[in-house]
Design brief:
This protein is α+β, with helices and mostly antiparallel strands. The chain has three domains: about 100 residues, Rossmann fold (3-Layer(aba) Sandwich); about 70 residues, ATP-grasp fold, A domain (Dna Ligase, domain 1); about 240 residues, D-amino Acid Aminotransferase, Chain A, domain 1. It has 15 helices and 22 strands. It has an eight-stranded antiparallel beta sheet with strand order 13-12-9-10-11-14-21-19, with helices on both faces. Helix 4 packs antiparallel against helix 5. It starts with a strand and ends with a helix. The mean pLDDT is about 95.
Length: about 450
């Protein structure tokens, strides 16, 4: 078992890892930028090291500074959390070369799954259904035209190294293809240092469903069921739930086995997520694999009574998985709302600033993962998430009701947040009935714009 883990991240995920390490008797090291000097992960870790100025490129994204902090504090492992360097194969390789354990998959696994074109081809070779499209990188607009002529519009042009909606363009005709192709390449180059793109057919009315996986060094891989992440804006998730309202027990078994088979092709190690699109007829298609712990992992923990971060640390240290597949049971329904410092009235524009008043809801079946507090300043340099509000209940409807009550109790003053917007979604009859897809928020905005136009 590790003696000391450095957490190469910030905010609520850093606190989450600190708690898991404490339960395992492991000392922790927090790293922080100058903007995060007063953050809770700095206060609650056993040791802390300032690694640079506020900009992430000079602190949380600088491998040299993080490795130096690990060496100075004699940390024998690094947990990357999510985002930043969590899926950076070069960083994982540096950790290996320095004799520091990387709590995650191997550099080779990260590279294979991080290149979405390569990952898609590997899954196709393994007999896993993939979204129709290019079989690899599309290098020229002429090649793009040829592919679209075969699969038809609409299509998505996607950066191979993309994520969070960056480097992605939807095209409905030849004119949009011409401009979207170059724009996606430019965004991929700017955001990820890689201009390569591939093309996929757009699946109509899809649910975004992901399967939580965990693998150990002894060849065991299991899944923990699915999460539905369809409520999203600009391809960034807002509300997630577990289990999915569209997934039947039979489909869960099939998707789980499929995801395990895909992960087994690279003998996957650690926590990871296989992402699928599920159409209205419950056909599912592989999208990508995230080789890290996910933001939304708590709903799987609450629905199945398992500690994924603890298990992630254990398997990274060489332990066998504690559970077998038959031990994983969906015991209840869980739901998560991401409370962001954003203004929904201004197209979800980030709204950093000082929180003047802060009160989190509580009670049975309510969990809040946050690093915020009253008088805390949300910095403008990082992700805008303030907290994750998670509830669990005996049924989906009861989970929705409990979430609505919890949102009423959640007080964040001083800055705009998404709290009221979440209330609006949860009160919508289509959401309550499970009649939604990844375009739900866009359709909701169009409906509101139409009503506003009629009034005026």
């Amino acid at each position: 078992m590790f003696e000391k883990v450095l957490i190469a991240n910030r905010g609520e995920i850093a606190l989450r890892v600190i708690r898991a390490c404490r339960e395992l008797g492991i000392k922790t090291v927090a790293v922080y930028s100058e903007a995060d000097r007063d953050s809770l992960h700095v206060r609650f870790a056993d040791e802390d090291v300032c690694i640079g100025p506020p900009l992430a490129a000079a602190s949380y994204l600088d491998p040299k500074r993080i490795i130096s902090a690990a060496e100075v504090t004699n940390a024998d492992a690094i947990h990357p959390g999510y985002g930043f360097l969590a899926e950076n194969a070069d960083f994982a390789e540096i950790c290996e070369s320095c004799g520091i354990a990387f709590i995650g998959p191997s550099p080779n696994m990260i590279r294979k799954m991080g290149d979405k074109g390569v990952a898609k081809q590997m899954m196709r070779d393994a007999g896993i259904p993939v979204i129709p499209g290019s079989e690899g990188v599309v290098g020229t607009i002429e090649e793009a035209r040829s592919i679209v002529a075969e699969i038809g519009y609409p299509v998505l042009i996607k950066a191979v190294a993309g994520g969070g909606g960056k480097g992605m363009r939807m095209c409905h005709d030849n004119a949009e293809l011409e401009t979207g192709f170059q724009m996606a390449r430019n965004e991929g180059e700017a955001a990820f240092g890689n201009p390569d793109v591939y093309i996929e057919k757009v699946i109509e009315e899809p649910h975004h469903v992901e399967i939580q996986l965990m693998g150990d060094t002894h060849g065991n891989i299991i899944h923990y069921g699915e999460r539905d992440c369809s409520i999203q804006r600009r391809h960034q998730k807002l509300i997630e739930e577990c289990p999915s309202p569209i997934v039947t027990p039979e489909l869960r078994t099939l998707m789980g086995r499929t995801a395990v088979r895909g992960a087994s092709t690279i003998n996957y190690l650690g926590a990871g997520t296989m992402e699928f699109l599920v159409d209205k007829d419950r056909n599912f298609y592989f999208m990508e694999m995230n080789t890290r712990i996910q933001v939304e992992h708590p709903i799987t923990e609450e629905a199945t009574d398992n500690d994924l971060v603890r298990e992630q640390i254990l398997v990274a240290s060489g332990e066998k998985l504690e559970l077998r597949q038959e031990d994983i049971i969906m015991k209840r329904h869980s739901m998560e709302c991401r409370i962001n410092a954003e203004d929904p009235e201004r197209d979800f524009r980030p709204a950093p600033g000082q929180i003047t008043s802060f009160h989190v809801p509580g009670g049975r079946g309510v969990r809040v993962d946050t690093a915020a507090y009253a008088r805390y300043v949300i910095p403008p340099f990082y992700d805008s998430m303030i907290a994750k509000l998670i509830v669990r209940a005996e049924s989906r409807q009861k989970a929705i009701d409990k979430m609505r009550y919890a949102l009423e109790e959640f007080i964040v003053e001083g800055i705009p947040t998404t709290i009221n917007y979440h209330k609006k979604i949860l009160s919508h009859p289509d959401f309550a009935a499970g009649h939604f897809d990844t375009g739900f928020i866009q359709k909701l905005g169009e409906q509101e714009a139409e009503k506003s136009a009629q009034i005026t």
